[in-house]
Amino acid sequence: MSASDLLVVRGLVAGYGAAPVLRAIDLTVPAGTIAAVVGANGAGKTTLLRALSGMIRPAAGQVLLAGEDLRGTPVEQLVRRGMAHVPEGRGVISELTVDENLRLGGLWRRDRADAGRALDEVYQLFEPLARRRRHLGHQLSGGERQMLALGRALVGRPRLLLLDEPSLGLAPRVVARTMALLRQLRDRTGLTVLLVEQNVRSALAVADQGVVMSLGRVVIAAPAVQLRDDVDLRHAYLGF
Amino acid sequence: MDRFVFLTVDGLSRGAVYSAFALALVLIWRAARVVNFAQGAMAVAAAYVAYTVSAATGSYWLGFVVAIVAGLLLGALVDRVVMRHVDHASPLNPVIVALGLVLLIQAVLGMVYGSEFRPAEAPFSRSALTVGGLAVLSPYDLFVFATIGVVVSGLAWMFARTPVGLRMRAAAFAPEVSRLLGVNVGGMLTLGWALASGVGALAAMLVLPTELGLHPHAMDLVFVSAFTAAVVGGLDSPPGAVVGGLVVGLVLSYVSGYAGSDLTPLAVLVLLLAVLLVRPGGLFAPVTARRV
C-alpha cells in the first residue's frame, strides 16, 4: 500500500445470509484514478459497492479509506469521511424536487457556504437540471436522473465516488457524455472513482484500472489499456 | 337557519381537532408506514400528566405546555422502546402491538387515576358570542381554531422549508438512499413519532373540555373520527388530513343536530365504509405512482 492509495480493500468477505457473495476481495484504487469493476451478472459487483459503503456488513476483511479503517462506521457517517455512493438504479427520490434532491446531498456539511457553492457548481455543470429545479424526480428523463444522481453526490464534494452501473438504461450518446464527465472530474478535481459496469467497453475506455470479478473474486486487476487489448482475456472473462 | 349556522360552526370547531389528530396519524403513517392505533391512549396519558401538573400548580397554561412536552417524549419513547423492535414484515404486527399499547396505557391510567371522569378545564369561555342576533363562535372555539391553525401551518412550513423537514421527507420516501446521503434515518423516525404524538396530545387538550372530561377511554371516539378523517383525506396526504377532519366534523355535527346524537358513531362508520368502498386511496390520493 502506498500513500497515494485512497481505497484499499483486503480480504473482504460479505453477502446476504449464510452464503457469502464476496469471497476475499483485494482491491487498491490510487487517489485521482478511475477503476472499473467488470464481470458477469452475479459476479458480486453491486454487493462489493454495498459492502464498501456499509449497506451490508462485511463478515471479514478490511476497508481502508485514506488509511482509515471503515469497519463499524454507520452508513450515514461514510459521506462525512468522503465516500459517496450512487446506488443501483441511481436512487433519485421521485417525490422530491430536483433542487431538494441536490440540497440533500450537501445537508450533512458543516460548511454551509461551501455547500451552497458546490450546489451552484453542480447547476453549472448540469445545465438541464438548472432549468428543472422545481420538477419532481419522477418527471425527469433517464439522462436527467443520471445527472441528478451524479450531481447530488458531487454536492458533498466526495474524495471517492462509487457508481453502480451508470450506463444502465441510457442512450449511447448519454453514456459517452457521462464517461467523459468522469474523466474531466478526475483531471480537474482529483476525484477518485470506483465504478461497476455491465457495459465493459465504455467502462474500460474511461478507466485507468480494470478489475475483473468472477464468482465473488477479483480474477484480474490490471491497467485498463491492457485489458482492452488482450483478446484472450476479453474472451475468457468479458465475452467480447 | 340559526341552527344550521350553529351546527356548521360547531362542526368546524370539532373538525379542527379531528384535523390535528388525523394529521398526527398521517405523520406516523408517512414516516413509518404504521397506523398508530395507540395515539388516542397516548394523547390521554399526556392529558393526565397535564391534569396533574395543573392541579398541583393551579396553572392551566403550565399544564397545557407540559401535555405537549409529555406527548413529544411519549412518542419518542414508544418508537425507541417498542415500535423500533417490531418486525414490520407483516403490516399487521405493528397494528397488534399498537392495540396492545392501548390496553397497557389505559390499564396504567386506570390504576393511577381511577376510571371516574375528571373535569377538563377550558381556558376560555365556551358560551358563544352573538353577532347580529346569531350565536356564532365562542372564545374557546376561536382559541381552538387559532392553535390548530398555528400548528398545521408550522408543520407545513417545517416540512416544506427547513433542512430537518427535507431530511424527514427524504428518510420517509427513501430510507436507504437517505442514509447514503448522511441522513440519520432512525433519528428522523423518532422525531416523526415525537411530533405526531405531541400534536395528538395538543388535540386531546383541545377536545377534552368539550367532552365529558378526562377518562382513560376519553379519546376512543375521537380516535375513530380522526382515523376516518385521515382515510377520507388519504393516509399519505397532510392537507388531506386537515380537510378530512373538517369534513368529518361537519358531517357529524349535521347528523347529530338533525338526526340525533345517538346516530353519530354509526355515521362515522358509514362514512369510513363509503370512502373505503368508493375511493380507498382517499379524496387526496397522490396522482403519481412511485417509480424506482
TrEMBL record, chain B:
Cellular location(s): Cell membrane
Record's bilayer topology term: Multi-pass membrane protein
GO CC annotations on file: plasma membrane
Main location: membrane
Domain of life: Bacteria
InterPro entries membership: ABC_transp_permease (IPR001851), BCAA_transport_permease (IPR052157)
A single GO molecular function term of this UniProt record: transmembrane transporter activity
Membrane-spanning segments: 12-29, 36-54, 60-83, 95-114, 142-160, 181-208, 214-235, 242-260, 266-287
Keywords: Amino-acid transport, Cell membrane, Membrane, Transmembrane, Transmembrane helix, Transport
GO biological process: amino acid transport
Annotated family: Belongs to the binding-protein-dependent transport system permease family. LivHM subfamily.
Protein name per the record: Branched-chain amino acid ABC transporter permease
